[in-house]
Structure prediction request, 76 residues.
Amino acid sequence: MELRVNRGPWQQADLSQSISLDTWYQWKLAVDMTEGQYEVQARATDPAGRVQEEQGRPVAPDGATGLHTIRVDVQP
Prediction:
């Protein structure tokens, strides 16, 4: 699992222990942010080393792709 802020470099997150190959992982990454607005993106890598596709496409027929992206507003 990796995270990037404002399209900067990817940073490796800490993963929890695996329960099985078919379960979600909890992850965390501490990021220092000053006051302002940020775009935060996350991407995963599968056990075979394939990185999540950045380009989004619809769910049908083969499943959605793209990065999970949120906007964060840091206030004092």
Summary: The chain is about 0% helix and 35% strand. The radius of gyration is 14 Å.
